Amino acid sequence: xxxxxxxxxxxxxxxxxxxxxxxxxxxxxxxxxxxxxxxxxxxxxxxxxxxxxxxxxxxxxxxxxxxxxxxxxxxxxxxxxxxxxxxxxxxxxxxxxxxxxxxxxxxxxxxxxxxxxxxxxxxxxxxxxxxxxxxxxxxxxxxx
Amino acid sequence: xxxxxxxxxxxxxxxxxxxxxxxxxxxxxxxxxxxxxxxxxxxxxxxxxxxxxxxxxxxxxxxxxxxxxxxxxxxxxxxxxxxxxxxxxxxxxxxxxxxxxxxxxxxxxxxxxxxxxxxxxxxxxxxxxxxxxxxxxxxxxxxxxxxxxxxxxxxxxxxxxxxxxxxxxxxxxxxxxxxxxxxxxxxxxxxxxxxxxxxxxxxxxxxxxxxxxxxxxxxxxxxxxxxxxxxxxxxxxxxxxxxxxxxxxxxxxxxxxxxxxxxxxxxxxxxxxxxxxxxxxxxxxxxxxxxxxxxxxxxxxxxxxxxxxxxxxxxxxxxxxxxxxxxxxxxxxxxxxxxxxxxxxxxxxxxxxxxxxxxxxxxxxxxxxxxxxxxxxxxxxxxxxxxxxxxxxxxxxxxxxxxxxxxxxxxxxxxxxx
Lengths: 144, 418
Prior knowledge:
The structure holds two protein chains of two kinds. By secondary structure, chain A is of the alpha+beta class. Chain A is built from six helices and three strands; from the N terminus they run αβββααααα. A three-stranded antiparallel beta sheet of chain A has the order 1-2-3, with helices on one face. In chain A, α2 (64-75) crosses α5 (106-121). The two termini of chain B are 30 Å apart. In chain B, strands 2-8-7-6-5-3-4 form a seven-stranded mixed beta sheet, with helices on both faces. Chain B is of the alpha/beta class. Residues 1-6 of chain B have low confidence and may be disordered. The A-B interface holds A 1-2, 4-5, 10, 35-39, 61-65, 104-105, 108 and B 353-357, 360-361, 363-364, 371-373, 377, 380, 385-387, 415-416.
């Protein structure tokens, strides 16, 4: 467990990167984790061709894992194309946290991914399949 | 003071843990388990586990069917469990006990059977803001299906029913008042006898969600005066998969069946069907036979401890934990201060730390608590919280568990520096 709350996670929780709401924005979605009431919104601004991410912000309230995950994920998005956003692998999102995520906290860790997918498709996205995601994750758990 | 109270209750939680095999399970931390999640479900004592195994090994056949010794044996034992439960909650007759899966199903039975045949446009249902979703969603559904309106009694800042608001909403003339005996999210013990009298004076029937009270305190349906009562076996040391609805006989007699099929009939032709008598009219299909034996053993175990002793024990643990938690800066406790109005369920929030993070760090200390909205999202909305951490006590807890709780909070503080 002490692993789960490494300084890397706690720093992102205490001082999240890319916090706030972008106005105006091109893509937006807000969602929640029903099991714990975590809330997260994401706003994304695209370039003039509406192809690449120029800026991104997230806002909401929730546990250290969900909030740090949003901070870490949004750090990676600038310069990516919308197609690339769509193709992000949830296992990479887990790996980027650098801590072992078990089934009990999987939704906390992947709420940011789900909200991002919601912003891309303009509707609520499905949760990734737990079995698939967990099968591929947590083996390396490499620290960033 | 609190320690003396706990020791004077006559229940020794430390010693009782020896009756519960799950406490032998090693935790990855190497520490003994401090189980503080009994409001969600309770561990089972050996006598309950043995009763289930014994039912399958020596007394198992279908009930109410076979014209042979083994089936008669199984039937007698199944009906003996019904009689034991009737005695345990002060029901005037065991014919008023309907076995169902859990309290949720009991409440749905009332909503579907009584609700859909008695409610219509212009009628009102009264519930409260502190209800578990099980005593809320079925009423919303029956309101939507029948055109009835639904009101909710507001809560005070300290987690009690607002009695002025209750009176105002009873004055609107609801047909039914749905209320919990003990709030699973706040720990509040509602003054059921008093508010039932008020509801009856206003012409409402009262359905009581007793899932959090029957396991933890003496409950007597006659003394409370309610009309329907729902309970779950798995929260009172019994198995999952069995619970009960108690209702006054004349109400059950007049209600149409909820689920239909085998066993709940007396005569079926292709043109129509005659219903069986209560309670069997409401028990379609093969029931939870071995689970009834387990529930019977749980009732005997609790009755042997004495429900007044169980309540006194938990009251002492509550008082000790409530005052200890009150000394922690940045910790907010929910629910009433008065131990007479607060069961052994404490919901709290720590500034700057989400309850899920609290529960994860607690788990590393082998302290099991619940974190979340506790199936009572309107309560979270009322107090503007996303979630709470909840510690709940039962017979196998002791003052060491209270100390483990405060130590675990210190561990959270170390991680979060909060």
